[in-house]
Design brief:
Elements lengths: L1 H26 L4 E8 L3 E9 L3 H24 L7 E12 L2 E11 L6 E10 L4 E3 L10 H19 L6 H8 L9 E3 L3 E6 L12 E6 L37 E8 L4 H11 L7 E4 L1 H4 L3 H9 L3 E4 L12 H19 L23 E2 L3 E2 L2 H4 L2 H11 L4 E6 L3 H14 L3 E3 L2 H7 L9 E2 L4
Parallel strand pairs: 2-3, 10-11, 10-15, 10-16, 11-12, 13-17, 14-15
Antiparallel strand pairs: 1-2, 3-4, 4-5, 5-6, 7-8, 8-9
Helix pairs in contact: 3-4, 5-7, 5-11, 10-11
The structure holds nickel (II) ion.
Length: 447
C-alpha cells in the first residue's frame, strides 16, 4: 500500500502543478503588466513590460530593462540643461504561435541630437519544452542556415529595388551572413518568415530597419514542416458597434473623457464595466505597440460604442523624429487598429500633444483642456476632484487608462457630475455641437 502511495502522490502533485502551469501560463499567458511613467523637467520615461511568471524569461527582461534605465539615467544626470526632453521609451511585444512565445523588448532612447536610438531585445521561448530557443530551432537540417542566408540576401536586395534605394552588396552580404546575431529578430506571419534587420545592419543608419518576408513556398526545405504555415486564420468578421440616439443629449452640458496610452486588459475593463451605469461613452487614444497584447479589450471598447483614436505606435515625440519615422508611427498604428476593429482610427492625439507642422496625420488632432495629472498622483480622489472642479461644457479630459486610480477617479467624477453632464465621445460631441472636425486641425475642446 505504502509503495502505491509513493507512486500516486508524486503523480498527483505533478498533475496539479502541470494544470496550474497550464492555467496561469499557457491560457492566460500574461498575468501582470508593469507600467512606469516619469515626467520630469529634464526627461520623460515610459516603461512597459509584462511579468509572465516564468523565471527563465522574466529575469532576462527585467535585467535588460534595468540596464537600459541605468544607462539612460547616467546620461540624464550628467546633463545640466536639455532643449528637448530626453526620453526613454521601452515597450514589450509578446505573441504566441504554435507553442512558441515571441517576445520583443523595444527600446527607443532620445538623448539629444537628430534622432532616437533604437535597440531591441528578442526572446523566443518554447512553451512545450520549457526552454529558450533561437532561429536554428526552426531549421530542418544543417544546410538550412546557408539556404536561408541566400534567400535573405536576395530579399534585402529586392527590398532596395522596390524602395528605389541603392544598397551596398557587400554590406548586405555581411549583414545577412548565417550568424545567429544577424537573425535575432524574426517572426512567422500569415505569409511567411518575417525578418527584421536593424538600422546599420544591411544598409546605412538613415535607411532605418529593413523588414523582409520570405514566403512559406520558398522555405519548404529550410524550415521544419510544423512551422511552415500559420494556423491563425484571420476571421473577416464585420464588427458593428453600438450607436446611440443622440437626440436626448441636447439639453445637458457635455464632457468628453479621453484615455491615453492603453489599451490595458485589466484596467480598461474596470472602466468599461461601469460606463453603462452613467450612460457614458468615452474615447481611447491607443498605442499601436500594445494592441496585439490587448486586442480583446480594444474590440470590446469599440463594440460598446466608445471611440478609438491613435496615440501613435511607440509614443515618440513627433517633433523630433524624421518624416519617414513619423509616417511609420502613424501608419503602423492605423493598421494595428484596423486589424482588430476593422476600421482606421478617426482621430489622433500625438504623444505630449506635440505636433509636427510638416507631417499630415490626415485625422483631426484632439488635445485637451482638463489635465488631471493622473499619472503623477495615482490617487482616484485627486483625479475626481480635478475633473469636477474644472468641468465645463465641451471640455476634453485627459486621463490614462493604464492606471487603476485613473479609471476609478474618472468613474467617481462621473458619479458626481451625472446630473449636470452627459459623457460623450469626441465624435458624439462634434455631432451634438454641430461642428465638423477638420484633418490636422487642433482641438482643445469642442464648442
Ligand atoms: Ni501618452
Amino acid at each position: 500500500m505504502k509503495r502505491v502511495l509513493k507512486i500516486i502522490i508524486p503523480i498527483i502533485i505533478i498533475i496539479v502543478l502541470a494544470s496550474l502551469f497550464y492555467f496561469f501560463f499557457l491560457r492566460k499567458q500574461l498575468i501582470k503588466e508593469v507600467s512606469i511613467i516619469k515626467d520630469e523637467e529634464k526627461y520623460y520615461l515610459k516603461i512597459d513590460y509584462p511579468i509572465l511568471y516564468n523565471s527563465k524569461i522574466d529575469k532576462k527582461i527585467k535585467s535588460y530593462v534595468n540596464s537600459k534605465k541605468d544607462e539612460f539615467m547616467k546620461i540624464v544626470n550628467k546633463t545640466d540643461k536639455v532643449t528637448h526632453k530626453y526620453e526613454l521609451l521601452i515597450q514589450t511585444e509578446v505573441h504566441k504561435n504554435k507553442d512558441i512565445l515571441y517576445i520583443t523588448v523595444l527600446n527607443n532612447t532620445y538623448t539629444g541630437g537628430a534622432h532616437y536610438i533604437k535597440d531591441y531585445y528578442n526572446l523566443y521561448y518554447d512553451i512545450k519544452e520549457d526552454k529558450l530557443v533561437d532561429i536554428t530551432h526552426f531549421f530542418k537540417d544543417d544546410n538550412s542556415f546557408n539556404k536561408l542566408y541566400k534567400l535573405a540576401h536576395y530579399y534585402v536586395l529586392e527590398y532596395a529595388t522596390a524602395n528605389n534605394k541603392n544598397f551596398d552588396e557587400a554590406w548586405v552580404r555581411s549583414g545577412t551572413e548565417p550568424k545567429l546575431e544577424n537573425y535575432d529578430y524574426f517572426t512567422f506571419n500569415n505569409k511567411g518568415l518575417n525578418i527584421t534587420f536593424k538600422p546599420y545592419q544591411v544598409a546605412s543608419y538613415a535607411d532605418g530597419e529593413i523588414k523582409i518576408t520570405i514566403p512559406y513556398e520558398e522555405l519548404s526545405d529550410i524550415i521544419k514542416d510544423e512551422y511552415l504555415s500559420n494556423n491563425i486564420e484571420k476571421k473577416e468578421e464585420k464588427l458593428i458597434p453600438e450607436i446611440r440616439d443622440l437626440s436626448k443629449y441636447k439639453d445637458k452640458k457635455l464632457l468628453a473623457f479621453t484615455f491615453d496610452d492603453g489599451p490595458n486588459t485589466e484596467t480598461t475593463k474596470i472602466l468599461l464595466d461601469s460606463l453603462n451605469k452613467y450612460d457614458a461613452k468615452v474615447t481611447f487614444f491607443v498605442l499601436g505597440n500594445r494592441i496585439n497584447r490587448h486586442s480583446e479589450i480594444l474590440k470590446r471598447a469599440y463594440l460598446e460604442g466608445n471611440q478609438i483614436g491613435s496615440h501613435t505606435y511607440n509614443h515618440k515625440n513627433l517633433k523630433i523624429i524624421s518624416y519617414e519615422s513619423a509616417e511609420r508611427e502613424i501608419n503602423d498604428t492605423n493598421n494595428a487598429i484596423k486589424s482588430v476593429i476593422g476600421v482606421n482610427p478617426s482621430i489622433i492625439r500625438p504623444p505630449y500633444g506635440n505636433v509636427n507642422p510638416n507631417i499630415n496625420t490626415n485625422m483631426p488632432i484632439i488635445l485637451w483642456n482638463i489635465d488631471t495629472l493622473d499619472w503623477k498622483y495615482r490617487d482616484k480622489n485627486k483625479v475626481a476632484d480635478k475633473i469636477v472642479e474644472n468641468a465645463r461644457d465641451g471640455a476634453i479630459v485627459l486621463l490614462h487608462d493604464i492606471y487603476k486610480s485613473s479609471v476609478e477617479g474618472a468613474l467617481l467624477a462621473m458619479e458626481r457630475l451625472k446630473d449636470e453632464y452627459y459623457f460623450v465621445t469626441i465624435e458624439e460631441m462634434a455631432i451634438l455641437k454641430n461642428k465638423t472636425l477638420e484633418n490636422d486641425q487642433k482641438y482643445f475642446n469642442i464648442k
